[in-house]
UniProtKB/TrEMBL annotation:
Record flagged with keyword Transferase: yes
GO MF term set: methyltransferase activity
Species, as recorded: Streptomyces marokkonensis
InterPro entries per record: Methyltransf_11 (IPR013216), SAM-dependent_MTases_sf (IPR029063)
Keywords assigned: Methyltransferase, S-adenosyl-L-methionine, Transferase
Residue intervals of the Methyltransferase type domain: 22-122
Xref: CDD domains: AdoMet_MTases
Protein name as it appears in the record: Methyltransferase domain-containing protein
Gene Ontology terms describing biological process: methylation
Amino acid sequence: MARQLEEQIVGRFPVGRRLRVLDVGMGRGAQALRLARAGHHVTGVEQDAAMIATAREALAGQPEGIRERMRIIEGQAGDTGVHFLPGSFDVVLCHGVLMDVEEPDALLAGVARMLAHGGLLSLLVRNDDAPAMRPGLSGDWAGALAGFRTAAYGLKRLTSTLAGIGAPLHTWYGVRVFTDTAADDAPLPHDLDALLAVEERAGRTDPYRGVAALLHLCGVRG
């Protein structure tokens, strides 16, 4: 996903431009910190105290220049309008947040308002078009059958939502096409580079990306 995001940033903004980045629901701050290291000014919003502590600890170990380019705000994803003016950011990340809220369309609209004209919106969402894949590949047949009955908040609906909030879909990728059944604490494989190359290729290739566990959607503020 980080490679996909970098591809979109490089293709949209002049090389060397220091972007204003908002990471809504930044978690432990991995993406935010990576972008701060790349020279961008990053603001992370997170409500989980433990994750904020982890992010601040990671930031504290960075050189002063990186620390100065990143700030962390404790708050909910839906409160961006409380903290920032519309159009304040060139790039807005909202990764892994929509699946945990009751009204994702309303949250998306608020997040999109933070984008300047031509700004990039990066979303990471669960692929509700293929909810039976993971339990099926794991041999959980009851779970797979239940997945077929899940109401889809998938690509079609998200495409419509993004168009309606003024940040129409520019491109999309699949994430975790072949590796979703791996345990969270599984050790890194010795052939990690090959694994990443395969995942990156599958994430941009039909029909594989359509059954990925997650979708990475990139919209552009019109």
